[in-house]
Prior knowledge:
By secondary structure, this protein is an alpha+beta fold.
Amino acid sequence: xxxxxxxxxxxxxxxxxxxxxxxxxxxxxxxxxxxxxxxxxxxxxxxxxxxxxxxxxxxxxxxxxxxxxxxxxxxxxxxxxxxxxxxxxxxxxxxxxxxxxxxxxxxxxxxxxxxxxxxxxxxxxxxxxxxxxxxxxxxxxxxxxxxxxxxxxxxxxxxxxxxxxxxxxxxxxxxxxxxxxxxxxxxxxxxxxxxxxxxxxxxxxxxxxxxxxxxxxxxxxxxxxxxxxxxxxxxxxxxxxxxxxxxxxxxxxxxxxxxxxxxxxxxxxxxxxxxxxxxxxxxxxxxxxxxxxxxxxxxxxxxxxxxxxxxxxxxxxxxxxxxxxxxxxxxxxxxxxxxxxxxxxxxxxxxxxxxxxxxxxxxxxxxxxxxxxxxxxxxxxxxxxxxxxx
Length: 390
């Protein structure tokens, strides 16, 4: 498989790198982490000016009409910079589903403002992602042409910044996906801070009404839409993890080359070389599986296996890399005034959002076992096997 990027994709990656490298510094990150919202508004505005928020939005609504791969190239650069902006929440959880499943009215309502950086979205997928049945935490009951929503959904990415959140909800007839106005009566948020210092509030809905015009998917289409959203959400997290691990390794290599012991750079010792080499191999595995999954999704191919594999590598190998790179910094790795600790925190947070490698490996094993399990032999077939020795 050839994963060489097109000139247009290379240009997207370069543009994103220029914005992040030009604006994200250690001092700036420290400053943003002391704010209440913990979002770099100036960086967000710069991403909008560079049209990096509208890559997967149609040209009709001010975007570039590209795909998930291009979005992941920007997310990779965000991971490198550990930049505190709601890019994954707004673009992957919000813009992509509205662009694919929204009505013309919903697209006109949300997408131009999103491209301009004026509208932010998110989605409440935590419970659907963690459940083997994809069961939403929120319940919905029919009310005229709309629904009444009740329930609490946890850790909604940067919901405190979003004008609307895409909320899956279970009904007697299936699952719906509703665009919930965060300023509507009955919507309450509880602040929750993640491992990487971002804000992912818990959202409680108490008799919140959504009209038919606010439905992204009805009961019949809801399960398909939720699965579609989850696959892209997971691939987006893998792209962030790729950037985190790449930059963590680069910083560790620079540190080991600069620091000396016994008159030699630390990078010349076999133990550090082997640990760094293992981290590099892990990062490359994240890269290969990520781009395969993104390519399959972008080209409309069945991608469930590829997404599951990329998810496992980003979770398992990602946490190995950030552990290794922090350890390779010695005592400096535990100093929260030194930049490498942020890569450890981001890597661990992404691992948690991907549900952890052990659970994913068990799920993959069960799926493979079910797929290749032989049907039980009939009595006659069993008797023949015993008689013939076959």
